[in-house]
Request: fold
Amino acid sequence: MMLILRMLAGLGRAVIGVFAGAGRLVIFAAQVIRAALLPPYYFGRLLEQMALIGWFSLPVVGLTALFTGAALAQQIYIGGGRFNAESTVPAIVVFGMIRELGPVLVGLMVAGRVASAMAAELGTMRVTEQIDALATLRADPFRWLIAPRLVAGVLMLPLLVMVANAIGIMGGWLLSVNKLGFNSGAYLATTRKFIEHDDFVMALMKAAVFGFFIALLGCYHGYRASGGAAGVGAATTRAVVSSFIMILLSNLIITLAVFG
Reply:
């Protein structure tokens, strides 16, 4: 009986911990959104974060999209060959990249690069008491440190996804024309035929949501870091893992809401 009670008590503590953590995150998000919407605005900090999140993420995003688009075309060609449906390669490549692979892969790659950097930077500032020093100087850490990162994430992820979609489609086109024997003009005509406005809207909506979660979770875990270097490392790990989970979960929710 005592063993059962201890197990139930442990389960209860875990459930309460999950809800307490969710509550802290919601309160943190509300504070950041308020800081982002109300003046003063630090446009220099915003431009700096836009460059760090967007411009410096372009190489890894571009290479990921290029290789993924080419590999997707190859796999679709092999699978379609079993049903004499090789001609579906252009349509499925553009569907797959714009609706799913483009936003999700960009989100995951940027989360691995950006969320970890945000958590490490803010975590280091927290354990070295630099954030406390800002508060002592009457500088709001949410306005100066976190709000520019959140706004930059929401703005730059859609741009990165647009670039990644174009590069991924180009990767599929390059492999299809040079290796699979497709006619370039016919391939591009089919691609244009199957691109719809709603596909772009959903991709950009997903990207904005992903950017919000990446910046929010990276800043949240870094801001709450404690325990010296080990605490900063743990905060960085939590930021990346939680960003991955929220990207995949929100992707599923948006997909079901739009196409369910």
In short: The mean pLDDT is 89. The radius of gyration is 22 Å. The chain has nine helices and no strands.
